[in-house]
Amino acid sequence: MDEDVSIINSNTRNEKIRNFLVENKKKLISAILILVIFLGSAYSFDKYKTNQKKQISNKFNLITLTHSENTKDRTVKSLVEIINEQDPTYSPLSLYFIIDNKLIIDQDEINSLFDVIIKKTSLDEEIKNLIIYKKALFNADQAQEGDLLNILNPLINSRSVWKSHALYLMAEYFYAKDQKQKSKEFFNQIISLEIPNSDIRLQAEKRLNRDLSE
User: Fold this and answer.
1) Residue-wise burial string across 73-106, b where 16 or more C-beta atoms lie within 10 A, e elsewhere
2) Which three-class secondary structure state does DSSP give residue 119?
3) Alpha helices (runs of H) in the chain, residue ranges in sequence order
4) Domain ranges for the chain
5) What is the CATH number of domain 126-214?
6) For the chain, which ranges sit under pLDDT 70?
7) Ramachandran angles phi, psi of 145, nearest 5°
């Protein structure tokens, strides 16, 4: 008796499954097709990004290895193209190569390239902060006080590992301009940080004790 009931229940379940499949055949096929298309698109996009990264890498290596005074214009053109690709690795490297080799002299043009990387390129937060700091360093010798602060404020008002560096740069900026009180204020901010960079803090203490003590 129990065996007969079990057979009936099994047959009933199978019948329900068959009916469900028949009634929802189109929906199931559509769902499977959507899944296949999604997985195929994800794979294709990942492969595209991998190939694009490889192409940018090859282009950067070729242009930097073959760079000479005779190829300067071509080098600049290619590196600017890479910067505008907004690649998180090779766009910053391209800008650093331009700066290190003095391939572009115009400061506004260099700052525009910095902005492409800082504002448009997808970067790890601390990598972005490092590039902001490098932009400030690039401008420090010629920038007005307000302009330099505008560059560094995202670091000064954050908990970034580059905050100590930003404060130190401003402190030295004011010290070089013989604005001792402002310089002292920034050095003291470094000392008062909860977790300052140890080397930067040591340099700040030396400066305060040696040159800014009352």
Assistant:
1) eebbebbbebbebebeebbbbbbebbbeeebbee
2) helix
3) 2-23, 25-65, 72-84, 90-100, 107-115, 125-139, 145-156, 163-176, 180-192, 198-211
4) 126-214
5) 1.25.40
6) 1-50, 214
7) -50, -50
Nearest residue to 200 via CA among 172, 181, 158:
172
Which amino acid, one-letter code, is at 2? D
Predicted local distance difference test score (pLDDT) of residue 38: 55
Which of 168, 112, 159 is CA-nearest to residue 137? 168
Write the pLDDT tens digit of every residue in 81-91.
Answer: 999 999 999 99
Q: How many CB atoms lie within 10 A of CB 15?
A: 10
Phi-psi region at 178: left, alpha or beta (left = phi > 0; alpha = psi -120 to 50): left
**What is the C-alpha separation between 57 and 41, in angstroms, rounded?**
24
Phi, psi of 70, rounded to the nearest 5 degrees: -70, -20
- Tokens 């499977």 -> residue: 32
Q: What is the rounded CA–CA span in Å between residue 148 and residue 176?
A: 14
CA–CA distance, 72 with 63 (Å, rounded to integer): 10
The answer to whether 182 and 150 have CB atoms below 8 angstroms apart is no
Q: What local confidence, expressed as pLDDT, does residue 49 receive?
A: 59
Predicted pLDDT of residue 54: 85
How far out from the chain centre does Cα 55 lie?
Answer: 20
Dihedral class, residue 189 (left if φ above 0, else alpha if ψ from -120 to 50, else beta): alpha
Residue 213: its pLDDT value, please? 78
